[in-house]
Amino acid sequence: MVAAMRRIENDEQYFRSLDWLLEKAKELDHPLIDERTKAELMQKYDFVAAGVMEYQQRKPEPSTPEPDPPKPEPEPEPQKKVDLSDWLDD
Question: Taking the model in full, what pTM does it have?
Answer without folding.
Answer: 0.60
